[in-house]
Design brief:
Radius of gyration: 17 Å
Structural class: mainly beta
Low-confidence stretches: 34-39
Number of helices: 1
Mean pLDDT: 80
Strand content: 35-45%
Strand order of the largest sheet: 3-2-1-6-5
């Protein structure tokens, strides 16, 4: 989901948010483009008779939600942008230029192995680190 968020942000040339809901164990990918009054802005439709193609507007983005399996437990979320976390919901933002707010998600699987998902703030790259197995 994180890698897709970066790709969508670059392709669409608009900021994309991935919200991590620790309490419910889910991730939500959505467009971060909103007007000043909080209403999402939809791209303008192409003029009559113009077929979709190069230079045409990209369709509005529909949010995508992924539920973590019960065997994965989110242990901790760290977002590097000040003020991005609240009430067990943290937002990673991927910017149109390929950068991101950066941060980490630490989670544990059914075998008690810890994993760390890192997001680079410099280039928006996402990678998974397997931490030492718990004794």
């Amino acid at each position: 989901m994180m890698r897709r968020a970066r790709a969508e942000a670059v392709f669409r040339r608009e900021n994309m948010d991935v919200t991590v809901d620790i309490e419910n164990g889910k991730l939500t990918l959505s467009s971060a483009e909103e007007s000043e009054n909080g209403v999402a802005i939809a791209p303008e439709p192409p003029p009559d008779g113009d077929e979709a193609g190069a230079g045409s507007a990209v369709r509005a983005f529909s949010p995508i939600e992924i539920q973590f399996p019960k065997s994965l437990k989110i242990e901790e979320v760290s977002v590097e942008t000040y003020g991005e976390g609240k009430d067990d919901e943290y937002t990673f933002t991927f910017y149109a230029r390929g950068t991101s707010s950066g941060g980490e998600i630490r989670f544990e699987d059914a075998r008690r192995n810890e994993h760390l998902l890192r997001v680079s703030p410099l280039n928006g790259k996402v990678w998974l680190v397997d931490l030492d197995e718990k004794k």
